[in-house]
Amino acid sequence: MTDSPKSFNIWNYKPWWCQPWSIVLTSVVLIGGSWGLFHRWWVAIGVAIPVLTWMVYFLLIYPRMMAQMLAEAEERAIEPS
Question: Most buried among 32, 47, 71, 72, using CB within 10 Å?
Answer without folding.
Answer: 47
